[in-house]
């Protein structure tokens, strides 16, 4: 088994055990980005939309009333089953569920009017392959909406490299299936390489109550304590960047950056004729 396969197996194991936690997570189920994705995409009733790494199914649920069909994929079958159960309980039926690798999508080219991926890409071992696959399955003129946690760009923070390294170690300590958060500029390079043109973007601070955040993926009290200790012992610039709040020597809350971007695949009329 190669390194990528090991990572994907770890993702399946980790999320298989915590599927219901993600369906019920307040952070994932009620984020302010969910109504915003409808505003940015402006989906049409005849659209077929792909939701990659659907997790708890919140993006698929949000899109379903606005589209002809949503195809929800995830690498982890128990996650798909939990999302489907929640959707059916709410009377949502226009969603198809497909077990799929984000880096090797089982769909023909040009199959979707839009593709979404929310708070998942930091688990992908090959984000370049993922973006290329998104571009392949999009129809000309189709839209790709990506939302993910990011590390700071070098031009935005003089200590960006140190902060980024810490954040990725910190996330991996809490969740061993975490691979790497990229910076917005790194994502833009991948989008450009796939001929996807950025149309709209925003960067926001996302704040977490620490205890439920760490418990959602931690396997033991010892792991929870190690994650908290790492944050408490972090250098002051890192603690300031993450806006760490403590009370009686315990972490109460922290924050990270989340980037949301819509890019567009070149339309046929804009393509060069060879």
TrEMBL record:
This is Class I SAM-dependent methyltransferase. Residues 50-145 form the Methyltransferase type domain. GO terms for biological process: methylation. The keyword Nucleotide-binding does not apply. Belongs to the methyltransferase superfamily. InterPro entries: Diverse_substrate_MTase, Methyltransf_11, SAM-dependent_MTases_sf. Keywords: Methyltransferase, Transferase. The keyword Methyltransferase applies.
């Amino acid at each position: 088994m190669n390194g990528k396969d090991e990572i994907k197996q770890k993702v399946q194991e980790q999320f298989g055990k915590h599927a219901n936690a993600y369906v019920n997570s307040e952070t994932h189920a009620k984020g302010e980005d969910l109504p915003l994705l409808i505003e940015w995409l402006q989906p049409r009733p005849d659209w077929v939309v792909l939701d990659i790494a659907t997790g708890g199914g919140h993006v698929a649920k949000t899109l379903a009333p606005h589209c002809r069909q949503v195809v929800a994929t995830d690498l982890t079958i128990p996650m798909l089953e939990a999302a489907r159960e929640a959707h059916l309980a709410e009377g949502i039926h226009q969603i198809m569920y497909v077990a799929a690798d984000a880096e090797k999508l089982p769909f023909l080219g040009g199959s979707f009017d839009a593709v979404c991926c929310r708070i998942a890409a930091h688990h992908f071992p090959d984000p370049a392959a993922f973006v290329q696959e998104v571009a392949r399955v999009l129809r000309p003129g189709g839209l790709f909406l990506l939302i993910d946690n990011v590390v700071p760009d070098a031009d935005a923070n003089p200590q960006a490299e140190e902060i980024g390294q810490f954040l990725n170690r910190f996330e991996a300590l809490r969740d061993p299936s975490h691979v790497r958060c990229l910076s917005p500029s790194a994502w833009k390079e991948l989008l450009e390489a796939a001929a996807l043109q950025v149309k709209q973007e925003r960067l926001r601070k996302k704040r977490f109550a620490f205890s439920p955040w760490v418990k959602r993926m931690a396997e033991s009290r010892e792991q929870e304590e190690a994650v908290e200790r790492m944050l408490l012992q972090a250098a002051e610039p890192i603690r300031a960047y993450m806006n760490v709040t403590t009370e009686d020597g315990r972490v109460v809350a922290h924050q990270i950056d989340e980037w949301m971007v819509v890019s567009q695949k070149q339309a046929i009329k804009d393509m060069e004729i060879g």
